Amino acid sequence: MLGRHRAVLPDWLALYYDDPLEIVEGEGRRVRDAQGREYLDFFGGILTTMTAHALPEVAKAVTGQAGRLLHSSTLYLNRPMVELAERIAELSGIPDARVFFTTSGTEANDTALLLATTYRRSNQILAMRNSYHGRSFSTVSVTGNRGWSPTSLSPLQTLYVHGGVRHRGPYAHLDDEAFTAACVADLRDLLGHVRAPAALIAEPVQGVGGFTSPPDGLYAAFREVLAEQGVLWIADEVQTGWGRTGDHFWGWQAHDRNGPPDIVTFAKGIGNGMSVGGVIARAEIMNCLDANSISTFGGTQVTMAAALANLDHLLRNDLQGNARRVGGPLLERLRTACSALPGVREVRGRGLMIGIELVRPGTDLADPEAAAAVLEGAREEGLLIGKGGGHDTSALRIAPPLSLTAAEAEEGAAILERVLRRIAG
Ligand code: PMP
């Protein structure tokens, strides 16, 4: 399969593992590969399997809808799309909210940038250093994480702001309050040199950047400064939405002094593997476009049916609460396991979104080789995790399906502890 893959697909579709994995089956928090080996899944395919693998309710919704009508168009009324939009509008907390569905997070952010630049009549965007928002022409242009940007030919004028990364950079040594004040001063300074930016786009917890987040309240403090010039805030909830962070349904709620953002984007897990993304904004912003539609496939019935069933399951079973109840102890368990390891700089995160930052022992230098080795070692012991980070891929990323049990958390933590002791000890 690897040879065939290489012969027809782009080289830049980078695969995990020296011996790449072909997953063919899944159930709950486990997947099986083509050779019949079973793995505990601590990454959910980068959070796309949000609740559980092969969730029966989602499978039933998909096959039921597929048997009735497989169709995609925004020209006709679409009941599952309206129903899901109603649910999401209410959950968003955005007043008079409108929802537009896309097929990916990239397209959702693309649309958010289109809305913000049109609404504000400005092509200036503020984005966070180390951020990731997608790889289309516009989203690449606001992605601060250079390691993930294939081009710098930007259609937007982007200015990068400090604050998304707590543990590195010029303000890392400051306490939370001073850190926030320094980042706000940096933002003020930037705003003094530009015309009138359209928006600030930010991930409440940076995903690809290695599950790192600013002190709670930073984006509320930013917002007060942005409001002076009418600059919008776009919260990219592609990784942080739907209860993943445990304490909050949306990641922005950790900053929520001033209420919901102007625009929220989402994708990944809400379809539990089906391609669903979207943008939420109040009507005034959403309706500023003079357009017929943007997407033919966004909101297709079968993906909407899957997302509705998945959302029902998530809410009915309080999986946000589960992320908190299982994720909190897992974070502490991993912190304890890593406390004496010289190759681990930090174990951080919230809910079921946990990052482990690896460094060359005795230094502050990122250690991408160690991160790659831990990934391989964990896989050999039957555990799938992810990696990410800043300019170096030196953070391990843990983001299991939100239904993870305490026993599975312990099983995965024990494997990680063994592997980390060997590689980072
Ligand atoms: N925003 C964030 C925060 C992401 O993590 C990603 C994907 N890693 C995207 C946007 C892009 O989403 P997609 O891959 O579905 O286009």
UniProtKB/TrEMBL annotation:
Source organism superkingdom: Bacteria
Transferase recorded as keyword: yes
One Pfam family hit: Aminotran_3
CDD domains: OAT_like
Cofactor annotation: pyridoxal 5'-phosphate
Gene Ontology molecular function: transaminase activity
UniProt entry keywords in alphabetical sequence: Aminotransferase, Pyridoxal phosphate, Transferase
EC number of this enzyme: 2.6.1.44
Subunit structure: Homotetramer.
Family that this chain belongs to: Belongs to the class-III pyridoxal-phosphate-dependent aminotransferase family.
Protein name: alanine--glyoxylate transaminase
